Amino acid sequence: MANIRLDKYLADMQLGTRSQVKEYIRKGRILVNNNNVMSPNAKVDTKIDIILFDGRNISYEDFEYYMLNKPAGVLSATRDKHSDTVLDIIQGFTRKDLFPVGRLDKDTEGLLLITNDGMLAHNLLSPKKHVDKTYFAKINGKVLPKHILEFANGIYIEEDIKTLPATLKILTSGIESEIELTIHEGKFHQVKKMFEKIDTEVTYLKRLSMGTLVLDDNLQPGEYRKLTDSEIEDLKSIKVE
Ligand code: URA
Question: What pLDDT score was predicted for residue 14?
Fold first, then answer.
């Protein structure tokens, strides 16, 4: 984004509602490149112009990116009347238009990207792009080497829905097993359904990575941090079939 109205610039950066920021502008509290600008519809360049509000520099952030370790019990949605959502967890953000990139089930934990960058989200979620997602899971039941092959060949999770080849790593195998599974799509309840099909049950599910983005070990469930510049660059440059 380059040229936008001054009142939009200030409202986007959460200085107030459109009418509040218009009032600030008319009262001369805003400087653009050290000049008083009293007109709310003056155009400013978000990349070049220096905007001061009562002497405080207000730089423009087009996009924000957060990595959340989603805790169990919250919905992957923006707002909900009845349940807490992942956006209720994020505090101190600037942009009002944040959303979670994709969905984890309410009882699933782990990596969730939260941003307002619609283009990046579209690329990561597009069914054509097959972005890898890796999960850790605890399984009620015995996961066996033969299942590695079954998942690698693709498995019917519904009568007419076959999964793409997935990579299963068995960490422990017994009455309860622990596994890592990498899938290349995001069908509804996909991991749970895949294990149902081999007569087992997922009892704990956590997403570890999505594309190049890996869950930060330092984040406890419910904690989040901004993505680093290199994490953002890497996500933007994911080349997928
Ligand atoms: N697969 C599932 O079954 N649930 C999730 O939350 C994510 C992947």
Answer: 84
pLDDT value, residue 231: 98
Whether the CB of 87 sits within 6 Å of ligand 1: no
- pTM for the complete prediction? 0.86
Q: How far is the CA of 109 from the centre of ligand 1 (A)?
A: 9
Domain harbouring 229, CATH code? 3.30.70.580
Which of these three, 36, 57, 78, is where a domain ends? 57
Which of 32, 57, 82 lies at the terminal end of a domain, its last residue?
Answer: 57
DSSP 100-144: ESS---TT-EEEEEEES-HHHHHHHH-TTT---EEEEEEEES---
Question: 49 with 162, same domain?
Answer: no
Q: Averaged over 196-222, what is the pLDDT?
A: 98
User: Ligand 1 pocket, 181 CB below 6 A?
Assistant: no
- Mutation choice for ligand 1 from 184, 202, 205, CB with most ligand atoms inside 8 A: 205
- Read off the tokens for 58: 């207000």
